[in-house]
Amino acid sequence: MTSPRTFGHVDTWVFDLDNTLYPHHVNLWQQVDARIGEFVCNWLNVGPEEARNIQKDYYRRFGTTMRGMMTLHGVSADDYLAYVHKIDHSPLEPNPQLGAAIAKLPGRKLILTNGSVDHVDAVLARLGFAGHFDGVFDIIAAGFEPKPSPQTYQKFLVDHSVDPTRAAMFEDLARNLTVPHELGMTTVLVVPDGSKEVVREDWELEGRDAAHVDHVTDDLAGFLGGLSPQ
Predict the structure, then answer these.
(1) Hydrolase as a keyword (predicted)?
(2) Among 49, 55, 58, 65, which is least packed by CB within 10 angstroms?
(3) pTM of this prediction?
């Protein structure tokens, strides 16, 4: 068995947004999830239960419900994103400990998300992280092709001139770390705090023992704070 990759060579730090830069138990994604269900319900004129089944089916098959709705039903990405991200961000609280840990990392810090830049901006403002990142690659930059599509990671690497062998990726979904690991990144799976109740499906919590996951943490601030040049 090979040893997990380390961080001494890393000069680019890549972070997912939702459930990675803020705690899972805030359940902010629950609000987005509910808005997605409403959108599917209204657009397809189906009941809530059928809409829920469609929503989750597309999420599994296409990477995001939006991609499924665009591909199969001609939905406008702008309309979809504007609707589903119209949520209350107030449950998010400033996290100066995590902010300080991110700021101290050597090199560039980037966000790679299946959300929109507007959503990123709102989240970072609440967390107090607005000045900590050097760039954002969102679902629009990805051409609406979400993670874990290999072409999305490739476009991200090109757009931001990232050498994957000198990068680390932080994610809350293990399936979204498969391609980064294949590309040479050091991978970190951010899992829920075991003492808090989280709203996740079982498959979303799988993968912490996968070969493409180098490290697992339920305390991102503590994990980053513990990194030192190797």
Answers:
(1) yes
(2) 49
(3) 0.88
